[in-house]
Description:
The protein is 30% helix and 18% strand. The chain has helices at residues 4-10, 16-24, 31-35, 43-48, 53-56, 124-133, 152-163, 177-180, 187-194, 213-224, 243-255, 279-289, 346-352, and strands at 76-80, 83-87, 139-143, 170-175, 199-204, 229-234, 258-264, 300-305, 310-313, 319-323, 326-330, 336-340. The chain starts with a helix and ends in a 14-residue tail after the last helix. Residues 77, 79-80, 83, 85, 141, 311 line the site of pyridoxal-5'-phosphate.
Amino acid sequence: MIQFADFAQKWSLDAGPLEAVVREHPFRLSGHFERLIHRIGDPVWRQFVPDVRELSDLSGLEDPLAEENLSPVPNLVHRYPNRVLWLVSNRCAVHCRFCTRKRKWRGAAISHCNADGPAQMPGHGSALHFIAGNTAIQDVLLSGGDPLLLPLPELAEILLKLRQIPHVRIVRIGTRVPCAMPELVTPELAALLSRHHPIYVNIHCNHPSELSPEAENACRLLADAGVPLGSQTVLLKEVNDNESILGELFHHLLEIRVRPYYLMQMDLTRGTAHFRTPVSAGLRILRKLRNHISGLAIPHFVIDLPGGHGKTALIPEMVREIKKGQMIVENYLGRPVSYPLLQFEEEELVELLHTRKGLSRKRPAK
Ligand SMILES: *Cc1c(COP(=O)(O)O)cnc(C)c1O
């Protein structure tokens, strides 16, 4: 791992103003991703190099998805009755500056600075106990931190214990490792996963330049082990917010047998406003891509609603109303949830979502 002082020196950065930022939100960048930075401010740089706006932006929420409130036991988020999100690892390959769980970087919760400390989140016993005792849970998503940064024997133990619970039908792993630290995707890891099928792996990948030959190899190893691969991409201002970048990313993913799954609107995490795009941007980009690239390469565009109301696909059927700077969407329980809009986007959004009652507008002439 690269120390911030060394990184700043190498790139002749004025580290002074950024010291307060990294004290609050530590810097973490893998050697592999650093090699993919070609110039200051490029898409890889923007995702991982601290920015003073992380401290000055006070909009947003510490825990935008109310994960702490939805955790019946520590590090297990139970939002939907039949699936749980289990934060098994306290360590990530890189620290994305727009991370939803920045609150967990601080203090004891994440021992990222102590590479020799345990990588497991505390509370494994109680999480397993909760899953075993709740027969409605069919789908367990492992996240963190990054599950693939756990020592293999620890990951093996978790998978083994989960597979002893008959009602757990599917295990999913969310990870940035295949792109950020592809050297950790070994034949041993692939063999371990293949012993516990069905296991789905969702890789987090935001820009075509993250799909290096090494990342392609890592995905090949997993795909050859029979692991279905999907991807999650966060829509990020000045990183990937245009159709040519995302079209290239989604198509390249498909070529390496990764099926684009979610394109996500940035969460309302405090200190990340400089990454947030208007909702209309994602809709516009997908409209331009649809039918121009393979349908298999088109992900769902979703908002993870603030307050823990769940993910909602941004399709006209789910949008009830757009007014006074708010978009009222329906969540999976049929409840209305409001989402704040950027002022200038209301009109365009109404046009993009032209179908639903109260929203109907003539489609703009081409
Ligand atoms: C995203 C998420 C899931 C999985 O949702 P899918 O739409 O099935 O991928 C489950 N639990 C929580 C808490 C989540 O945030």
